[in-house]
Amino acid sequence: MPVPSPPLTILEEFLLLALDDSVGRFYPLARSTLDCTLAGAVLMDLSLRHRIDNDLHDLFVTDASPTGSPVLDPALAILARSPVLTPKPIAAWLRDLSASSDDLRERALRQLEALGILRREDTKILWVFGSRRYPLLHQKEQREVKLRVLGVILRDDIPEPHDIMLVTLAHACGLFHHILNDHELTAASARIDQVARMDLIGQAVAKAVAEIETAIAMASGFR
Amino acid sequence: MPDSDCLFNVLIEMARLIQLFKSPISHNELKDLRKIGVRRNGSRPEQPVANLLEKGFNGAASFFLGVETMPVTQRAISFTAEPDVMEISGRLDDGTAPAIEEDALLCIRCGARRMVIDCHDLTYVTGAGMRSLLTVARAMRQADGRLIVCDLQPQVARMFAASGIDAMIPVYAYQSEAIASLAG
Q1: How far apart are CA A145 and CA A150, in angstroms?
Q2: Domains (ranges, CATH) in chain A?
């Protein structure tokens, strides 16, 4: 009897959502925005695994024991570094984890490869420029994530916390502009705004992304 | 490696648990659930949970739900009449929310369809607590029931407002108002 795979983390599901399966590449998202979003995804995963908790202002480690996930445990180790159990604003934790977002992304992609969901394909363009694609080996997981997210934003049900978090992240980094057409986006806009408020870590991600975008816009304007 | 006696006991408890859910639980038995909840520290509960003990609930619950080393927040479920009122006090956070969520979900599984969660003595709620409330509200809606919260203290009210969850779970100022709205 085959051993069932563990459920995907928010981070892994977010990466699947952000993957354009027609070309095997991620939708174009600003690097700094993606860093912050991936850091937020890891915080959400850790909160669902009862390792951290938060109130309106602060986020705190409640249990520093490893989760067993090769993706989450390195991040938990960063959070649990001294001073352990000291509450810090959510934005500060996001900054701490954003610095290692490349590592988080790489680990999550390796996990998706190990689960047989996608594969890595390195090619050369004009024999010089490296290009990497992530074709899906199975559509099932990505389709399931997309259906769940669409179900949340197109219906009025009370969503599951896990799905709220995914919607919050997708909204914060502007992913819905890529995965929905204009008509769908307009129709679901109010519901997306409603759901995106429901997770406080997600709110902090959205705020941090907005600040980054403002800073970039201001810097561009001053040139 | 657990010994065979232990495994045998587990199987017995599982069989009893299945038997428990095959037979409906009365409201009086549900009322006693709170005592099981607050004693989720590995100790055996005392009377008046004899009925549930007979059905093997506590043994199975303590095995499957794990052992709490910290006392959970004080809470009480009173089943005086419809609707059901669940009073939560203290903190609703990562340490306490899973047990309270479980109690509430068990009530819904056992037939509660109109429930008031009275937060008069709930002084602090975290993200984990809000997720638990949302999970209970979701289960209640899926069961075609209604869940209302009432008497939010300042920090709890701020959490509700900040997360917009008050748009999904009706909030009333007083328990009497909440009960009246469910009666209508």
Answers
A1: 9
A2: 10-215 (1.10.3630.10)
